[in-house]
Design goal:
The complex is a heterodimer. By secondary structure, chain A is mostly helical. Chain A has one domain (2-164). Chain A has helices at 2-37, 40-76, 79-83, 89-118, 127-156. The radius of gyration of chain A is 18 Å and the shape is elongated. The two termini of chain A are 27 Å apart. Chain B is 90% helix and 0% strand. The longest helix of chain B is centred in the first third of the chain and has 38 residues, at 2-39. The chains are: A mainly alpha, B mainly alpha. The interface between A and B is large, with 47 and 47 residues.
Chain lengths: 166, 162
């Protein structure tokens, strides 16, 4: 029963996680160079119709990824060990902490600043480029954090605890 | 120890990063770009086909290649043999062939025809819709195949009894 539950949580974690980090890679490797290369009209269109939809899937899949990951730890009964980096759970704990920092970046920095850029909340002309810069830096940070994060995700379930001295 | 744990771990890490980029871009195409292209004006649409799509498709098809290669290396190095991974790998391979044999060749034609039409300021030839449709259907197919594929990928390493 617990194993079946964990399988479904892991499935949800994969689907949501791929959507989240895949869109993060899209923003960093495709959308940023695209927006630099187009006319102001096309940029306006992208801000009106493309970026808001992408950000919707981005921030909710980020939330779903974290929750599914938390449920997996819950089913295994290692939430506390993971987040306090104890024993073999320290490996997934490192991944969980990196993922938590990334989730906080999405909801507390990227999304509030993008709302100003997109005009969903009021912002002065001086505030807008600053907000765009903040969102960009947090997004770049998450891209870099995703590489070690995925290392710990890959290592946690597979490399034996002895390998990490747990 | 190196061959038993570190080598498979490195392959799995590469497999995760490349797989996230590949299927993540697939989700972008299906959940974000398709709706955007329906809503926007023809000029922006051409701009997206000429300036966004080539870059997105470059990451898409090469991350698909790296995902498949690192996956095969992982199966060999890790000695992974079970029903779940066989089903998952088969689904992944079908998706990979869809990318390289249907989506990319047809999208190349769409990009070329859009480029010609923009340069000569003439409407795109009617065959372009046929190529766009084929690429779209293969992309939709991959979108739906990704769900069972990921179930079996997750099951293979953790629940090999399946």
């Amino acid at each position: 029963m617990a194993a079946t539950l964990e399988l479904y949580f892991r499935w949800g974690h994969f689907l949501a996680g791929i959507m989240w980090i895949g869109l993060l890679y899209f923003f960093n490797f495709v959308q940023v160079p695209f927006l630099k290369s187009v006319t102001p009209e096309a940029k306006g269109e992208a801000f009106k119709h493309l970026v808001p939809r992408a950000l919707f899937f981005f921030r909710y899949s980020a939330l779903a990824t974290w929750l599914f990951g938390f449920f997996i730890l819950g089913v295994r009964g290692i939430v506390l060990e993971a987040f306090t980096l104890q024993g073999p759970a320290a490996v997934i704990g490192m991944g969980a902490w990196l993922g938590t920092i990334m989730l906080a970046n999405v909801w507390l920095i990227i999304w509030p600043n993008q709302k100003k850029v997109l005009g969903l909340v009021a912002a002065t002309p001086e505030e807008k480029p600053k907000a765009a810069r903040m969102a960009f830096l947090a997004s770049r940070t998450n891209t870099m954090l995703s590489i070690p994060m995925l290392f710990f995700m890959a290592a946690s379930g597979h490399a034996p605890a002895t390998f990490f001295g747990g | 120890m190196v061959s038993e744990t570190i080598i498979p771990l490195l392959f799995r890490w590469i497999h995760f990063v490349a797989g996230v980029a590949w299927i993540g871009l697939l989700y972008y195409f299906n959940l974000v770009q398709v709706s955007f292209m329906k809503e926007t004006d023809p000029a922006t649409k051409s701009g997206v086909i000429l300036k966004l799509l080539p870059r997105a498709l470059w990451w898409f098809r090469y991350s698909a290649l790296v995902t498949v290669l690192s996956g095969m290396a992982l199966m060999m190095a890790g000695g992974i043999r079970n029903t779940a991974i066989m089903i998952g790998a088969t689904l992944g391979l079908i998706m990979f062939l869809n990318v390289w044999l249907i989506i990319w060749p047809n999208q190349k034609v769409v990009i070329r025809m859009t480029g010609d039409a923009t340069a000569t300021k003439t409407p795109a030839p009617p065959e372009m819709a046929k190529h766009a449709r084929r690429a779209y259907l293969a992309s939709r197919t991959n979108f739906f195949l990704s769900f069972p594929m990921l179930l079996f990928m997750g099951a293979s390493a953790h629940f090999p009894q399946f």
